Amino acid sequence: MLVRAITAPGLRRWCRGRRGAATACFPLGRALLGVRGAEAAVFLQGLLTNDVTRLLAEGDAPRALYAHALNAQGRCLYDVILYRLHRSTAEEPHILLECDSSVLDSIQKHLKLYKIRRKVTISPCPDLSLWAVLPGDASSLPKCADQALLLTPDPRTEVMGWRLIAKKGANLSEIIPGSQVGDVQDYHRHRYKQGIPEGVKDLPPGVALPLESNLAFMNGISFTKGCYIGQELTARTHHMGVIRKRLLPVSFPEPLPAAGLPEGAEILTAAGKRAGTFRAGGGELGIALLRLAHLGEPLCIALGAHRFQD
After folding, report:
1. What residues does 25 pair with on adjacent strands?
2. Which residues are CB-contacts of 240 (< 8 A; sequence separation ≥ 6)?
3. How many independent structural domains does the chain possess?
4. Does residue 18 form part of some domain?
5. Three-class SS of residue 159?
6. Residue 108 pLDDT class (50, 70, 90 cuts)
7. Which residues contact 121 (CB under 8 A, 6 or more apart)?
8. Which of 10, 45, 116, 195 has the smallest CB count inside 10 Å?
9. Any idea where the CAF17 C-terminal domain is (predicted)?
10. Domain range holding 245?
11. What is the DSSP letter of 18?
């Protein structure tokens, strides 16, 4: 099957086309974990790639941050989005951590392993629901969100719209009048088109490297914050400036089969050289780790002894 890396102009076409369209809200199957207490931000600071103390800043502090938790070898364990629930620095820090639902137990154990005697409580939030919001008129959203626990721009990139957190069972049409519930597969296809990884299929734990996974492009890392687990290899790679592979959006000439392609399927050049690996996809779009040297060449997916190409 022929594979084509999507170029930068193609990444913006979908978003431009949605201007003036109805707001679409996509229910996400990701989990939310509450981290609360006087030392919540300091505790997370040593475990994540981004500068979590920004959530405690006076004045115009961000409501959300993107980050990865790494292992000691500098490879990704979990991709997370942090949300600030406390309204001011006078309140006790209260941070929500969004993660892939399949690793909720694992990330709880990971956090509790390093908690030691920190003044922090860690608990899942099954009473909350998480939505991705791709608005037609973004400027009107904050005025409509009185019933939302939190409505904030996606911290990774503006083309991913907004993140909405509300009580389970909340009426979306009251939170965002005129909105429509969308098919979550459309959300994932939009992600793939933008080259945005999310979850363990796109970022295999213990395998994915943060800079190859475009963490810096998605505002997910601070190179000035100091030490955290996995920082040494990541900082060295950044300062050397040599990244030979990246996660990139790819397209296929026809929709993928219902069963999909196996994760980790090899992508080859026409000459049979390894060009990368397929991570995940849906419809005619996907995301793959590709060697930058082979961009612009005809590529194909290899399955066993067979190559699928136009």
Report:
1. 133, 181
2. none
3. 1
4. no
5. helix
6. very high
7. 34, 35, 36, 37
8. 116
9. 244-301
10. 2-10+198-308
11. T
| pLDDT tens column, 89-99 | 889 999 999 99
Whether the per-residue pLDDT at 136 is higher than 80: the answer is no
User: What are the backbone dihedrals phi and psi of residue 142, each rounded to the nearest 5 degrees, phi first?
Assistant: -60, -30
Amino acid code (one letter) for 54? R
On whether the CB atoms of residues 165 and 130 are closer than 8 A, the answer is yes
pLDDT digits (tens, 9 = 90+) for 273-300: 999 999 999 888 999 999 999 988 889 8
Rounded CA gap, 69 and 216, in Å? 14
| pLDDT surpassing 90 at residue 43 | yes
Question: Token digits for 173?
Answer: 């049409």
Amino acid identity, position 166: A
Task: Give the span between the Cα atoms of 209 and 77, in whole angstroms.
Answer: 9
Name the residue among 150, 141, 137 with its Cα closest to residue 176. 141
Q: How far apart are CA 193 and CA 181, in angstroms?
A: 20
In a domain, 151, yes or no: no
Place of tokens 């194909």: 300
CATH number at residue 293: 2.40.30.160
Going from the C-alpha of 81 to that of each of 9, 47, 103, 126, 233, the distances in angstroms are 27, 13, 14, 17, 22
Q: How far apart are CA 268 and CA 276, in angstroms?
A: 7
| 164 SS3 class | strand
Nearest residue to 238 via CA among 211, 259, 215, 217: 211
Paired strand residues for 165: 130, 150
Is 275 a domain residue? yes
pLDDT > 70 fraction of the chain, expressed in percent and rounded: 86
- Residue 34 domain flag: no
The single-letter code of the amino acid at 85 is L
Q: Residue type at 198?
A: E
Cβ atoms within 10 Å, residue 180: 12
